[in-house]
Amino acid sequence: MSETIIQVTDLTMGYDDVVLQQHASFEVFAGDVFAILGGSGCGKSTMLRYLVGLEQPLHGDIQIAGLGRPNLEVGRPPFGVMFQSGALFGSLTVGENVGLALEQWTDLPHDAIAAVVLAKLRLVGLQGTEDKFPSEISGGMKKRAAIARALALEPSLIFLDEPSAGLDPVSAVELDELILTMNRGLNLTVVIVTHELASIFKIANRCIMLDKQSKSIIARGDPRELRDTSQDPRVREFFNRQVHQS
Amino acid sequence: MAEDDARISLEPQRLSMGRMSRIEVATSASARPQLILEGDIQFSQAAALWSSVRKRLKPVTRGETLNFDLSRVDSIDGGSMALLVHLRNELKLRGVRSDFVGATGSVQELVHLYRGDENPIRRKRRRPKKSLDEIGERTLAFFGGIREVFGFLGSMILAVLGLLREPHTGNWKEVPHLMERTGADAVPIVVLINFLVGFVMAFQGAVQLKQFGANIYVADLVGLSVTRELGPLMTAIIVCGRSGAAFAAELGTMKVSEELDALRTMGFGPVRYLVLPRTLALMLVLPLLTLLADLVAIGGGLVVGILTLDLSVSGYLSETRQVLSVWDVFSGLLKSVVFALAISIISCQQGFATTGGAEGVGRRTTSSVVAILFSLILIDATFTMFFYFFDL
């Protein structure tokens, strides 16, 4: 069994009086491409915000290897995050976006930072865009640039929120390939929030499925096995794109 | 390693999960010179790796060979590999024969991933813009901006005509809410600032007028200046800062988040739906605020007259009534309507022209406030000249 990178125990998440998910427990192992699945509004993206420490659990615990509880106040984060919209800083060029964390957290000289930035952009297929502003590139390119930014500090763990949402099929497949390349080539553990079925089956080796109604995890394991063997009608509906029969 | 003529050991560092980073850089002086790297090469030591390797590469000249021997590298991460590939590419571009040799397994995969097995492409240097190009571009942008404003004005006129034909299509329900936001909510700041304007003006005038025993003329000075010039202008400046900036930011955010496009696709004309209610609300509230400003500024002058010039309340007010005509007040209110139109058109136009996300919204908000202030002064000067030449 691989080393546990993330350990979530009895997590309850929500805001004010609203509970989105309760008693969620799962673990992510080193080298996983771990998908958090579920229908719209079930709390997938919120779960990701809890995992990276943007929100504090109402109850339960999250532990990340080498860090403990995710805490964004302690300094250089040991993981990278790609937000759904890319969240690139509009006032900075793509290159400056990628180099920002390197400027902040390393003592590399400018020419070395520029070299790393170019290499990261090449890695995600964005060579030649370093001087462009985010408003000058397409949605798919923004997502790739956001991945390059998340990879800047060589994290061993990366969180991706709906990376292929809103992309054309070719761009979505290219992004899937990129995620697999990063996972295998850079030995990167990937936690991905998505509901793109093609993407899930192609890249994820483990997953959990959240359910809005029961506010709990209703399935876990290999997504292909769940698709083929799960007896839970909610899981079957999700994987087989069926409409709920009541 | 007996053939090594130099070796650098970088300070070992503790990595996460109990591992240690260990980097050794050595130059082999054998017949085929090589830069030998060994150990766990981690990004936490990238700066030291960069400087030590680069130092070794400096003396190498065109036509020589210097390969990077990675056969003793236990592990390397992406960032460190990116730096090594960059340094090797620098060598190749200098005419030095250089390759990564001896890499196996995951190290070889990383070499391939970061294209260390390809020939580097010389990047074209971007030609810096000449100052003449810069001047030309800015001039074109300036005239383009003016054309945009006139284009916007044209679409506003069309929207007004459309609204006159079909009054029921107007977004009337928004108007009271906007009047509250731009008018009622601005009352405290308008009152405070205009009271102080009247107060300060009376103080300044009092010092001079006292010398000639003309204390009572403070009322004339404050009354005329405030109703004809300062009341409308100061109030418009306040509304520009509050509502003009808010309109530009609000509409700019709607533009970049595609809400304006969504409105269009739903059959709403954004100008008719968003701009006309704002314009109407401002044109209704700005004269009211100006009237209030006139009153409180005269009140400010009155306080100074009573406290420092020994004037009576009735004497001060009677002098003010005598010196002011209805036209003095009305001309100020007329100005304020035109000011309202300018604030609304410029701020909404700037909001509609926003591109480029949050930064674009900030840029357009700033430029809308600057443009409005400039236009307010210009309009005020035009009115003053017009009134002067026609003896109004």
Describe this structure in words.
The complex is a heterodimer of chains A (246) and B (392). Chain A has 8 helices and 9 strands. In chain A, 35% of the residues lie in helices and 25% in strands. With 246 residues, chain A is α/β, with parallel strands linked by helices. Chain A folds into 2 domains: 1-78 and 156-246, 3-Layer(aba) Sandwich (Rossmann fold), CATH 3.40.50; 87-154, no CATH class. Chain B has 392 residues and is of the alpha/beta class. Helices cover 67% and strands 10% of the residues of chain B. Chain B has 12 helices and 5 strands. Chain B has helices spanning 46-57, 78-93, 105-113, 131-165, 174-182, 187-211, 217-256, 259-265, 270-308, 313-323, 326-352, 357-389; strands spanning 4-14, 20-28, 34-41, 67-76, 100-101. In chain B, strands 1-2-3-4-5 form a 5-stranded mixed beta sheet. Chain B is elongated and about 105 Å long. At the A-B interface, α3 and α5 of A face α1, α2, α3 and α12 of B.
CATH topology of the largest domain in chain A: Rossmann fold
Total helix count of chain B? 12
Please report which band the strand proportion of chain B falls in: under 5%, 5-15%, 15-25%, 25-35%, 35-45% or over 45%: 5-15%
Structural class of chain B: alpha/beta
Q: Going across the biggest sheet of chain B, name each strand in turn.
A: 1-2-3-4-5
Shape of chain B: elongated
**What assembly state would you assign to the polypeptide chains in this entry?**
heterodimer
Strand order of the largest sheet of chain A: 5-6-7-3-8-9
Largest sheet of chain B: 5 strands, mixed
The total of beta strands of chain A comes to: 9
Uncertain stretches of 5 or more adjacent residues of chain A: none
Largest sheet of chain A: 6 strands, mixed
> Fraction of residues of chain B in helices?
55-70%
Helix and strand element order of chain A? EEEHEEHHHEHEHEEHH
Number of separate structural domains of chain A: 2
